[in-house]
Amino acid sequence: MPTTPPEKPAKRKYVRKVPIDGASKASSAAKPATSAAKSPPEAEVAPPPSPAPAPPVAAVAKVPSKAAAKPKVPSRRRSTPSTRAPVKQRSVPLAKLTIPAKPTVKQVAVVAAGTGGIIAAVGAALFLWRASKADQPDYKLVERDGDFEIREYPGLVTAATEAHGPREAALERGFKTLADYIFAKSRQGDKIAMTAPVLSDGSSTSGWRTRFIMPAGKGRADLPAPPAGVTLANEPPRRVAAVRFSGRADDRDLNAKEGALRSWLQLRAFPSEGHAEHAFYNSPIMPGPLRRNEVIITLSTK
C-alpha cells in the first residue's frame, strides 16, 4: 500500500500586534497622512550602501592665466650713447677763403645737400648772397676754345702782400693781411668792398704774392692808406690766356692745368711771358663742383 509522504508543517506567520488605545488613535490622527506611509519606528531600516570611493585623480598642473612672456631678442640696432664726443673742427686754409662766383640757389642747395648736409647748405647760401654783391673785373673775351680763353683786361688797382713758405701757408697769411686791410681791422676808416677773384703768384723760393682787386672806379687816391706789408699798385691793361676748372685746386691740379694751358698756347702759337697766376673765385665752404678756379698766363705784346 503506498505510503504518502508526511506533510511539511506550515510556517507560522508571526503578526505583531500593536495595541490601539485612545491616545494612540489621537496621535495617529494628528499626524499627516504621509506619516502613515513611513515604516514603523520599531522597524530597523538598513542604511544605504556607501558609494565606492572615487579613484584618485591625477594632479593637473596649474596653467597661468596669461601667456608666458616671450624671451627678448637683442636688437641689432646700435645703441646711441647719451653723450656724443665733440666733433673735431677741421681747419680750412684762409688761402681759399674767396668770394664765390654766381651759381644759382638751386645748384648750391642740391650740391650742398649731397656733400655737407644742412650746415653746408646754410654756409653756401650765405656765401652765395655775398657773391651776388661782389664785383668782378670786366674783360673782353677775344677767343674761346672749350675751357681755354683769350681775354683783354683793362687797367686795375690792386692791393698786394708777400709771404714765404709753402704755397697754401703763405697764401693763408697773405689773405689774412689783405682782409684786415679791406675790412678796416688794421687801419682806420671805412671798409672796402670785397671783389673776386683773389690772385696768387710766385714760388716757394722767391715767395708768394697775394693780390686783391680793388672795386671799379676807385683809384689809389680814393683808397685808405695801407698798413705795413700792404702795397697799392696800378696795373696796366693786358691780354691773358686763361683755363677754367672746378674742384679744390690743390698743387697737383694747378700744375696740371698750367701745363695744359701752356701746351694749348704752343699749338696756337701765342707767345707768353712765362709767368702763371692762380685765380680763386670761391669760398672753401662752396662745394667743389660749383667752384671756379683759373690759371692765367699773361701774353707777350711783342
What are the main properties of this structure?
302 residues; globular; 21% strand; 23% helix; alpha+beta
Strand content: 15-25%
Tally of DSSP β-strands: 9
Largest sheet: 9 strands, antiparallel
First-residue to last-residue Cα separation = 194 Å
Q: How much helicity do the residues have?
A: 10-25%
Order of adjacent strands in the largest pleated sheet: 1-2-7-9-8-4-5-3-6
User: Which overall shape is indicated by the principal axes computed on the Cα atoms?
Assistant: globular
Overall pLDDT confidence: 76
Radius of gyration over all CA atoms, rounded: 58 Å
Structural class designation = alpha+beta
Number of helices: 5
Question: Outline of this structure?
Answer:
The chain has five helices and nine strands, in the order H-H-H-E-E-E-H-E-E-E-E-H-E-E. The protein is of the alpha+beta class and 302 residues long.
Write the layout of secondary structure elements.
Blueprint: H1 22-30, H2 105-115, H3 117-131, E1 140-145, E2 148-153, E3 156-163, H4 167-182, E4 198-203, E5 207-213, E6 231-235, E7 238-245, H5 251-268, E8 272-280, E9 293-299
Antiparallel strand pairs: 1-2, 2-7, 3-5, 3-6, 4-5, 4-8, 7-9, 8-9
Helix pairs in contact: 2-3
Structural features, described:
The chain contains five helices and nine strands. The chain has 302 residues and is an alpha+beta fold. It has a nine-stranded antiparallel sheet, covered by helices on one side. The longest helix is centred in the last third of the chain and has 18 residues, at 251-268. Mean pLDDT is 76; it is low at 23-44 and 91-101.
